Amino acid sequence: MRTLPALGPTRKLKLPTEAERTLPNGLTVIAIRRPAVPLVEVRLRVPFARAPLGRATLLSQALLSGTAARSGVQLAAELQAVGGALSAGADPDRLMISGNGLVTGLDRILELLAEVVGGATYPAEEVTTERERLADRIQVARSQPAHLAREALLRRVYGTHPYAVQTPDVEAVRRVRPGQLRALHADRLHPAGATLVLVGDVRPAQALDAAERALGGWNGGGKQGDLPPTPPLRPSPLLLVDRPGSVQSSLRLALPAVPRTHPDHAALQLANLVFGGYFSSRWVENIREDKGYTYGPHSLVEHSVAGSALVAAAEVATEVTAPAMVETMYELGRLASLPPAAEELEQARRYALGTLQLGMSTQAGLAGLASTYAAVGLRLAFLAEHAARLTSATRDEVAAAAAAYLAPAKAVTVVLGDAERVAGSLAALGPVERTAAPAP
Amino acid sequence: MPRRTAPRIPATKYPVERFTLANGLRVVLAPDRSAPVVGVAVVYDVGIRSEPAGRTGFAHLFEHLMFQGSENLEKLAHFRHVQGSGGTFNGSTHLDYTDYFETLPANALERALFLEADRMRGPRLTEENLRNQVDVVKEEIRVNVLNRPYGGFPWLKLPPVMFDTFPNAHDGYGSFVDLESATVADATEFFTRYYACGNAVLCVAGDLGAGVTDLIERHFGDVPARPAPARPEFAEPDLTAERRSSYTDPLAPLPAVAAAWRVPDPVTDFAGYLPYVVLAEVLTDGDASRLVERLVLTDRTVTSIGGYLGFMGEAYEVRDPTALVLQAHLPPGGDVDKVLRTIDEELERLATDGLADGELARTQARMATHLLGDADAVIGRALRLAVLEQQRGAPELFNDLPRLVGEVTAEQIGAAAATLRPQRRAAVEVVPGSAG
Fold this sequence. Notes:
The complex is a heterodimer. Chain A is of the alpha+beta class. Chain A contains 16 helices and 12 strands. In chain A, the strands form 2 sheets. Chain A has a 6-stranded mixed β-sheet with strand order 1-2-6-3-5-4, sandwiched between helices. The longest helix of chain A has 18 residues, at 124-141. The radius of gyration of chain A is 23 Å and the shape is globular. Chain B is α+β, with helices and mostly antiparallel strands. Chain B has 16 helices and 11 strands. Chain B has helices spanning 58-65, 77-83, 109-121, 127-146, 159-162, 166-169, 176-181, 184-194, 212-220, 270-284, 290-298, 336-353, 359-376, 378-392, 397-407, 410-419, and strands at residues 17-20, 26-31, 37-44, 88-93, 98-105, 200-206, 243-249, 256-262, 304-309, 323-329, 425-432. In chain B, the strands form 2 sheets. Chain B has a 6-stranded mixed β-sheet, with helices on both faces. A 5-stranded mixed β-sheet of chain B has the order 7-11-8-10-9. In chain B, a hairpin with a 5-residue loop joins strand 1 (17-20) and strand 2. In chain B, helix 3 (109-121) runs parallel beside helix 9 (212-220) and helix 10 (270-284) packs across helix 16 (410-419).
């Protein structure tokens, strides 16, 4: 018998060199050095709360379609010439423009970025193209079970909150006119409250200067939108969304959660790991490695600006839908009512701490972390504080977090599947409310 | 506007060391201390093409069995030890190889070596684990293929149109009948034949520290020597007449099409192959690429189009026979024939008129960014280095790729485009079965 080698000494979390500057127009620039490869990652995050969904989504798709100085194709070619590319996306919290390129092209990428945020023109022809592409993409998304299950869960969890609907209807998209995009852009694409993150093979001070040169003249006026806090979860019957002929059922459970800065957060993260947050969790070991009901079950604490939620998701064979739900409730209930084993907690803790290191080990990883954190006023230094909290969270604290947040009685549950085949057995477990899937 | 000169294409300079243990295991080391993490990859020279007839999907099923316990490890132990060390893991099955890998904090390096060596000596192949993983794989196929629109398009749908022989043409995910017929004896035989240490490459990248060679020797040195099996011949003749096929996808709301053309041998004729890799990007990388500008932005005959080398999109990790693949999604009522005709027209134009000023340089610059970005992740380096060693005996090619991509000429691109004629094409069309 050979024995598993011990781990070497744990290294202290080492944060990369960074620098920050708030420009006179209100733009916050954060520059982080990781010289491993001669590239730079760019993330510009602009608050976009309360932007009308159809317009905001189409704006993100048409943003790079042209400026006064050049067409969308010319813009793409100029970016490519320095190894670069940019893309944009919107969600209920923000508009995000992301990209990367050769670090020698940093100035050029920032110039072109400034040209876009300062004066995207939304040419009518290009807007028509992007509008139809978006409409097609929405139609395809609505033929995906994972997307439909997500839509149903968001509606159930968020009710009348703006987070409830995150994909616009095709009709809403088709109604959007270029002038409305220009108006929305003028209203909301402003540096106040926006954050630019630059990560790469460049001295942070030099990156800040480059950002200031390129984006210092970006207009500083404009409106901000605020979202109310997300509503508390309301216990409700399981919602069964019918998808006739579905060979799998998509299980989705939402549970309460807290933001990253909340005192319970580290303990909640550990409790979630023990439940279903990584492969070596109770849920995965049960419904996949023991029962073979599913391929990739996972649970995750999702953070948005206005609130956080724990979401568990699994695609299970239609014939085991109810048994999979029974095991899910069992694992949640067991963790909510009995503390985790000591070694089980240590394993989850080491995973949480180790993956913090892995997440910081690439330029793209650092850029994503820094941008996400900045949205809620945090900096990378938060990683060290969080690591300390993960290290010190006790078994009692994790048990208390599990009892408070993972109790199955608090879950809002959606199942998307073939209702004819699964409704009966699900009804044996508790009340079920049935609905049809939306037409694509 | 002033003309800008093309940027110099940068390269990586990862030191690469290679050696072979007495038992035949090939090892690649790529030390780099830019982050306190390590990547460990073990690649076996067996994939979908080596599956026996009547056992479609077996290479992938076997990959799952490699996680089910081994000589000194109970079921579940592998996952728990990797993640309980702060690491992540995965494995994947390709046409020509199967990889197993972990990314971990540097203090867990020896543990990962132990785990990989243990299953190289022998996984626990039991009836119970086999039945469990057949069920898991069936759910994987349902989630990725059967329960969603465009499942397996085009990677499972094009090969049977383009190829005639079982190794190249069959469904690599496997039929449920074949998966259910798999036995422990099949698995034992597959392991004995293909999972020989002489048929494997180990690559360790990242913050390795001193003594890594000794650690590798300590854990892998006594894995019993078994030579690599002879690699079968998978060659097939090129097409001389166009092949077209279509199928109805009951879940798809919109039409789609994919087309493929054979390309030179990626290993024995890398210089002849590389222009096709660049050509795929000239055609489809971004809004300024040929086919995106024409088909998406000008004609609006497609909603999106992508192009890449190899059915699984791994240009530098595939052997002959393989293809340049284009795939496009069409708007409602879209005309696939018209799309294919326009592609022919654009290829003809490229072959005849050549590239525009700066078009090649900007494509190469963007390709360099992609290659360097892949290299930044320690596991991206470890996997690519391992496969380059396995298929070419040349892991150092890793550092040369951006430069070699940059040396492809406009003439070579034009010549490559000239070979993509309709009579050499295999195409498959998705007919939407759920048009709303």
